[in-house]
Design brief:
single chain; 409 residues; alpha+beta; outer membrane lipoprotein receptor (LolB), chain A; TATA-Binding Protein; twelve-stranded mixed sheet; six-stranded antiparallel sheet; disordered N terminus
């Protein structure tokens, strides 16, 4: 037990970096060329167009690039997702999909209603496919020749819940429309929403919806969503940071077709000789994917709760959560989660060398009325971990975190 407590001290900052990565989500976005001449439309009308969109079928190819401003995590993430007996197979989505939070990737997608979706990640000559077909979820990693399979409980849809509140199966990555819905839910007095011109997306005319914080202190410069002018389907999602440089998320459809994909697109049979892992017994993997699946939409959902003053974990407006649960501070885009880990910050030399080097590259030492601590930085999500084991995390500047910690004393 003592060893576990000791390990938790330096695992917490690494987990914070993981949370930052998870908030970016897995969202196809835009590759634009040319500005089509379209009829004028108001932001309200464009939002209504998105809400009325009911695209059930599509197929296409897109590129996704992410830049969190993080140093390389090579050699760190694999240890967090074990393989072999008691661990996760290499084809398990909870392990594989984390690769999308850094670098650039090409993906193929297909969808036929809520019961059939397919995503294929192309990595050189290797492919990784994630397929949802009715009550089955399959994943295949050609590099390792491993298959992951999970069967939904009878009567549960693709995003339903199994008995006792457990997720019935792993969710596929969020669509642009789902992400757009989460962002729009968070809009309120703290948000500016305008139409920022037009764009050409994979040969289709689109309007650009531009969403910006009105508050100071947020790390988010803007969220841009390109919306298909004909059917209202969100085609673009670009996230820019106030720190400038490359977008945090910049990915785009290079081809898109709204016709119904062929039925055999979603067929899958494990190749002969491939190792097959059944996911039902892998609760740790399920829980990890459930958290990862919340993605960027989850972050904006929390921001929206802060803006709208929804009730805390104890049922009290603005109240503190239970043990280990976050207390939400502030509102809107500058909402900060305060978490009391109960574990002191790691001491220098306590973590393994490669982990300590990663943490040092992320963190800056700070001090104030709260005492002292370390700010761990990305281009969007920053976290302050105090020396007495409290964490302040949000899409806000380091100064905002220090001010929140000082005000909590």
């Amino acid at each position: 037990m003592a060893g576990q407590r000791k390990a938790s001290r330096y695992v917490v900052p690494v987990a914070v970096a993981g949370v930052a990565a998870a908030t970016i989500g897995l969202v196809p976005a835009l590759a634009a060329s040319g500005d089509p001449d379209l009829p004028e439309i108001t932001a309200q009308q464009l939002i209504e167009k998105i809400a009325a969109s009911d695209t059930q079928t599509l197929s296409g190819t897109f590129r996704i690039s992410t830049d969190l401003g993080l140093p390389s995590v090579a050699g760190l993430l694999p240890s967090a997702v074990p393989s072999g007996p008691g661990g996760s197979a290499s084809a398990d989505p909870s392990a594989k999909l984390t690769e999308l939070v850094s670098g650039s990737h090409t993906l193929r997608v297909a969808a036929d209603g809520p019961d059939r979706q397919k995503l294929t990640i192309l990595d050189g000559s290797d492919e990784y496919s994630l397929i949802h077909n009715g009550d089955d979820v399959w994943a295949y990693d050609s590099a390792s020749d491993e298959v992951f399979h999970e069967k939904a409980e009878k009567g549960e849809g693709p995003h339903g819940k199994a008995a006792h509140g457990k997720a019935s199966e792993k969710e596929l990555p969020a669509t642009p429309k789902q992400l757009a819905d989460e962002v729009l839910k968070a809009a309120g007095d703290t948000t500016s929403i305008t139409v920022g011109g037009t764009a050409k997306v994979a040969g289709r005319d689109a309007y650009q919806l531009v969403i910006k914080p009105k508050q100071t202190g947020s790390t988010i410069e803007s969220v841009k969503i390109a919306v298909d002018a004909a059917n209202g389907t969100p085609l673009k999602f670009t996230l820019d940071s106030v720190s400038g440089g490359k977008p945090v998320v910049d990915a785009g459809f290079t081809k898109v077709d709204f016709a119904k994909p062929a039925a055999d697109t979603f067929d899958f049979k494990a190749p002969k000789g491939a190792k097959v892992t059944e996911g039902a017994a892998d609760k740790a993997g399920k829980d990890a994917e459930d958290e990862f699946g919340k993605g960027f939409g989850g972050l904006f959902g929390d921001l929206g709760k802060g803006a709208k003053g929804e009730r805390g974990a104890k049922g009290e407006k603005g109240g503190k959560g239970g043990a280990g649960e976050p207390e939400m501070i502030g509102e809107g885009w500058t909402t900060i989660a305060r978490i009391d880990t109960g574990a002191p910050a790691p001491e220098t030399g306590e973590a393994p060398k490669e982990v300590q080097g990663f943490l040092d590259s992320l963190g800056d030492k700070v001090s104030g009325k709260f005492g002292s601590g370390t700010v761990f930085k990305t281009k969007i999500v920053n976290a302050l971990m105090t020396d007495d084991g409290k964490i302040y995390v949000g899409a806000v500047t380091p100064d905002a975190l220090v001010n929140a910690a000082n005000a909590s004393k």
